[in-house]
Amino acid sequence: MTFNRLLSRAVFVSRAGCRSAFTGSKPDMTNPNWFRVGLAFGTSAFLWGLLFKQHSTDTHEYKVRNGLE
Amino acid sequence: MGFIPEEGKSLPPPGLVNRNSLWLAGVGWVSAVLHNAINHRPPVKSGVHRQFLLATIGWFIGYHVTKYENYTYARLDRDMNEYIKLHPDKFVPKEQKTFAEIVEPFHPVR
């Protein structure tokens, strides 16, 4: 049996080229992709900062143009 | 997000909390929840970072939409008032009659 295995090409076939359904993996929901989580929260924080800055600029511009400050 | 010209900058800016922001943030959040549901994940409990990001994007866009909306309505109001001032003959105040002058005398038939 071992002799057959030595001759058989199946031994040298790497798993990467295999199209069997058993090598496909389902998305692993128990280990979060922390990089993407950090990127999402970081982008959110950036957008909120941008929004606060824009609002404060607009308020200041309004006060200056109407002589309130 | 329209570009607001110089004249629009003297308008009061919309508050950070405004209707368009709330609505578009809700749209973003619901789309994240739907995305979870379609992919067989717990809809509200999973992917909080996605929900928060999409809601933030909606809120941001809503603020600028409100700003543009305020500018548009202010411009339309100003143009309308200028037209009224330039054409006073078309906007003569109508002569007001009181009800006493219009109503016929009442003769009850009991």
From TrEMBL, chain A:
Q: Name one GO cellular component term.
A: mitochondrial inner membrane
What does the record say about its membrane topology? Single-pass membrane protein
- The residues that cross the membrane are 34-52
Q: What are the UniProt keywords, alphabetically?
A: Electron transport, Membrane, Mitochondrion, Mitochondrion inner membrane, Respiratory chain, Transit peptide, Transmembrane, Transmembrane helix, Transport
Q: Which branch of life, at top level?
A: Eukaryota
Q: Where in the cell is it found?
A: Mitochondrion inner membrane
The cross-references to Pfam families, in alphabetical order and at most eight, read:
NADH_dh_m_C1
For this chain, the family text in UniProt reads: Belongs to the complex I NDUFC1 subunit family.
> What does the record note on quaternary structure?
Complex I is composed of 45 different subunits.
Q: What does this protein do?
A: Accessory subunit of the mitochondrial membrane respiratory chain NADH dehydrogenase (Complex I), that is believed not to be involved in catalysis. Complex I functions in the transfer of electrons from NADH to the respiratory chain. The immediate electron acceptor for the enzyme is believed to be ubiquinone.
Q: What is this protein called?
A: NADH dehydrogenase [ubiquinone] 1 subunit C1, mitochondrial
Organism of origin? Neolamprologus brichardi
Automatic annotation (TrEMBL), chain B:
Query: PANTHER family per the record?
Result: NADH DEHYDROGENASE [UBIQUINONE] 1 SUBUNIT C2-RELATED, NADH-UBIQUINONE OXIDOREDUCTASE SUBUNIT B14.5B
Classify the source by domain of life.
Answer: Eukaryota
Q: Which GO terms describe its cellular component?
A: mitochondrial inner membrane
Known role: Accessory subunit of the mitochondrial membrane respiratory chain NADH dehydrogenase (Complex I), that is believed not to be involved in catalysis. Complex I functions in the transfer of electrons from NADH to the respiratory chain. The immediate electron acceptor for the enzyme is believed to be ubiquinone.
The protein's topology relative to the membrane is: Single-pass membrane protein
Q: What is its main location?
A: mitochondrion
Q: Which InterPro entries match?
A: NDUC2
Q: Which GO terms describe its biological process?
A: mitochondrial electron transport, NADH to ubiquinone
Q: Which UniProt keywords apply?
A: Electron transport, Membrane, Mitochondrion, Mitochondrion inner membrane, Respiratory chain, Transmembrane, Transmembrane helix, Transport
List the protein's name.
NADH dehydrogenase [ubiquinone] 1 subunit C2
Looking at the Swiss-Prot or TrEMBL record, what is one Pfam family this protein matches?
NDUF_C2
> What subcellular locations does the record give?
Mitochondrion inner membrane
Q: Source species, please?
A: Haplochromis burtoni (Burton's mouthbrooder)
Which family does the record claim for this protein?
A: Belongs to the complex I NDUFC2 subunit family.
